[in-house]
Specification:
InterPro entries: DNA/RNA_pol_sf (IPR043502)
Strand content: 15-25%
Largest sheet: 4 strands, antiparallel
Shape: globular
Radius of gyration: 29 Å
Protein name: DNA-directed DNA polymerase
Distance between the termini: 48 Å
Length: 548
C-alpha cells in the first residue's frame, strides 16, 4: 500500500474492512482481489488438497519449472526463513541457513526436519547459489501454486454455476449470485422500517453454553475405569449433520410481508399452522415458563434470549468469585445469548419454534405483533446441489469448496450493512483537504507522504439484505436442536440424561443406560454412523452426510 500513492494520475478506490485492511482496491481500471476471500485456507493446505487429484492441474507450475523432476519436487508449499532475512546482505548468503534460523516468530513454531530437508533438496536440485536466488524460487513457487489452485476454483465454478468468481470480491458474494441463478428466486426487500427492526430484534445466534460442569462415565467398554457395582453411564457427543443446511432446506420467506390485524391475530390458531404451508409467521409474544418445568428443563432451557447479565442474576458463590478474582462488583455490558427459565416479554420467534415451545409446556400470555409472509423451500435446490456435489467430490479441495458455497449463503443473509466502513484513499493534497473538510470526516491513517486513508461516518445505510431469511435459518436450527433433545433424547431417557454442554449444532450428554450403542441401533435412521469402523455393528452408510 505504501507505493500506490505514487499513481497520481489514477483514481484509487477501496472496499474496506477498516482504515488499514481492505477487501479489494483498484488503481484506475486495474482491480486487485484477495484470493483468501475465496479460499480461506493456507496455501499449503490448498496445494495438498489439489495435489491429491494428481499433477494435471498444475499448469502454471509446470510452465514456470518445466524440468519434470523439479516440477514433481515442487508440488507442495515451499519454506522460507522469514524472520532471519532482516537485511539485504543476508540474501547474499551462499548456503541455506541453519534449521534454527527458520523459526517463525509469528506462529511461534520451528520448522520440521521434513520441511528443512525439502528446502535443502530444492537448493541442491535447482543449483541455487545464494539465499536471494532461493527467495526467487520460493516466490515463483508460491505464485504459480496459488495461480493453479485459483484456476481450478474458477474451472469448477464455471462448470457448476456458469459464473466466474473473478467478477466478485468474496465467496459469499459469488455464492449468492450462483444461488439466485440456480433457484430463479426473486426476494422481496422489506421497505417498512418497523418490520426491519422487528426482524433484527429477533436475530439470535447459536446456543453455546456449559450446563453441567463435571460428569464421569461408567462405560463397560472402557475396562480400566468401569465399576460394575455403579450405574452404567456414558458420555455421548452428538453433532447435527449440516445443521444450517437443514434449516436452509426448509420453507423460507420470500415476500408479501404484512402485519396481521387484531382480528386476524385472534382468529389465528397457532397449533394448526403447517410447517410446509404457503404462509409463514414471525410472532412477538409474552411467554410464561411454568415453574413445574424448571427442574426438567434446567439443563437446556427453551427460548434463549440475548441478555445483559446483571449481578443480581448470580448465585452468592458466583458473586463471591467475581469479587475475589476480579475485584469488581459489576459485569461486562456485552450481551450474551442466555438460555434461561425466566418468563419472556416481547419475545420474537418463528412460528414453528413457538409451536414447539407450547407443545413442551410454555404458555402464551399475550401476542403483541405477528408478521405474515409467503414461504416455500426455494433454497433447497441449491443446498441439495452442493450437498450432492460434496458427497461425490473426488478430493478435499472440492469437498471444502462445496461446503463453503452452502455455508456462505447463510452468512450473506445476515450481512449487517450498518457495519460497513466508508474509507477514501487520498494520494493528492487536494483530495485529502476535500475529504477531511467534510462534516462526515471521522479519522485518518497516514501511510506515508504519498498516501492517507480517510474514514468517514456513514451518511446513509442501505438495508438491502434479506435478513428475514437469516432470522428464519437461525430459529429453525434451534427448532431442530430443541426437538431432538426433548422429543427424542429426553423422551427416551427421562431424568437419566443431562446436557453437559451445547455448542450451536452439538450436544455432550451424560446418559445413564445399559448400552448407549444398542439404543442408537434402535433409532439408526436418525444417525449418520458412516464413520464408525466397518466392522462395528453400527456402521451404516445409508445416512452418510445426510441432514434429513
Amino acid at each position: 500500500m505504501s507505493k500506490i500513492g505514487k499513481f497520481k494520475e489514477q483514481d484509487i478506490t477501496v472496499i474496506p474492512h477498516n482504515k488499514e485492511k481492505y477487501m479489494s482496491f483498484s488503481i484506475g481500471n486495474l482491480r486487485f482481489i484477495d484470493s483468501l476471500q475465496f479460499l480461506n485456507s493456507s496455501l499449503a493446505t490448498l496445494t495438498k488438497n489439489l495435489a491429491d487429484e494428481g499433477q494435471k492441474h498444475f499448469n502454471y507450475l509446470s510452465k514456470t519449472f518445466p524440468d519434470p523432476d523439479v516440477f514433481s519436487l515442487l508440488l507442495r508449499k515451499g519454506v522460507f526463513p522469514y524472520d532471519y532475512v532482516d537485511t539485504e546482505q543476508k540474501l547474499e548468503k551462499p548456503c541455506l541457513p541453519s534449521k534454527e534460523d527458520f523459526f517463525n516468530k509469528l506462529g511461534d513454531t520451528h520448522i520440521s526436519d521434513e520441511d528443512y530437508q525439502f528446502a535443502q533438496t530444492v537448493w541442491d536440485k535447482l543449483k541455487v547459489k545464494t539465499l536471494g536466488e532461493y527467495s526467487d524460487v520460493y516466490l515463483k513457487m508460491d505464485v504459480a501454486l496459488l495461480a493453479d489452485v485459483f484456476e481450478k476454483f474458477r474451472d469448477i465454478s464455471l462448470h457448476d454455476y456458469d459464473l466466474d468468481p473473478c467478477h466478485y470480491f468474496t465467496t459469499p458474494g459469488f455464492s449468492w449470485s450462483a444461488m439466485l441463478k440456480k433457484t430463479g428466486i426473486v426476494l422481496d426487500l422489506i421497505t417498512d422500517i418497523d418490520m426491519m427492526l422487528f426482524v433484527e430484534k429477533g436475530i439470535r445466534g447459536g446456543v453455546s453454553s456449559i450446563f453441567h460442569r463435571y460428569a464421569k462415565a461408567n462405560n463397560p467398554y472402557l475396562f480400566d475405569t468401569y465399576e460394575p457395582t455403579e450405574p452404567t453411564s456414558y458420555l455421548s457427543y452428538l453433532d447435527a449433520n449440516n445443521l444450517y443446511g437443514w434449516s436452509m432446506s426448509q420453507c423460507l420467506p420470500y415476500g408479501h410481508f404484512n402485519w396481521l390485524t387484531e382480528e386476524e391475530k385472534i382468529k389465528l390458531d397457532i397449533t394448526k399452522l403447517k410447517a410446509d404451508g404457503s404462509d409463514g409467521y414471525i410472532f412477538e409474544v409474552d411467554l410464561e415458563y411454568p415453574s413445574s418445568l424448571h427442574s426438567s428443563h434446567s439443563d437446556f432451557p427453551l427460548a434463549p434470549e440475548r441478555k445483559h447479565i446483571q449481578v443480581e442474576h448470580l448465585s452468592p458463590y458466583s458473586k463471591e468469585l467475581l469479587q475475589n478474582l476480579t475485584g469488581k462488583q459489576c459485569l461486562t455490558k456485552i450481551e450474551k445469548l442466555v438460555p434461561n427459565l425466566y418468563d419472556k416479554e416481547k419475545y420474537i420467534v418463528h412460528y414453528r419454534n413457538l409451536q414447539l415451545y407450547v407443545e413442551l409446556g410454555l404458555k402464551i400470555k399475550k401476542i403483541h405483533r405477528v408478521l405474515k409472509f409467503k414461504q416455500c423451500p426455494w433454497l433447497k435446490k441449491y443446498i441439495d446441489f452442493n450437498t450432492e456435489k460434496r458427497k461425490n467430490a473426488k478430493n478435499e479441495f472440492e469437498k471444502c469448496l462445496y461446503k463453503l458455497m452452502n455455508n456462505s449463503i447463510f452468512g450473506r443473509t445476515l450481512l449487517n450493512t450498518r457495519k460497513h466502513k466508508d474509507v477514501k484513499l487520498c494520494h493528492t493534497e487536494e483530495k485529502l483537504n476535500k475529504e477531511t473538510a467534510k462534516p462526515s470526516y471521522a479519522s485518518c491513517k497516514i501511510f506515508n507522504e504519498n498516501l492517507v486513508a480517510v474514514e468517514k461516518k456513514r451518511v446513509n445505510v442501505l438495508m438491502k439484505q434479506p435478513i428475514y431469511v437469516g432470522f428464519c435459518i437461525l430459529d429453525l436450527s434451534k427448532f431442530l436442536m430443541y426437538d431432538f433433545h426433548y422429543n427424542h433424547m429426553k423422551s427416551l431417557y427421562g431424568d437419566k440424561i443431562r446436557v453437559c454442554f451445547s455448542d450451536t449444532d452439538s450436544f455432550l450428554y451424560h446418559v445413564e443406560t445399559e448400552d448407549v450403542y444398542e439404543d442408537m441401533h434402535q433409532y439408526q435412521d436418525m444417525y449418520d454412523t458412516s464413520d464408525y469402523p466397518p466392522e462395528h455393528f453400527l456402521h451404516d452408510i445409508e445416512n452418510k452426510k445426510s441432514n434429513r
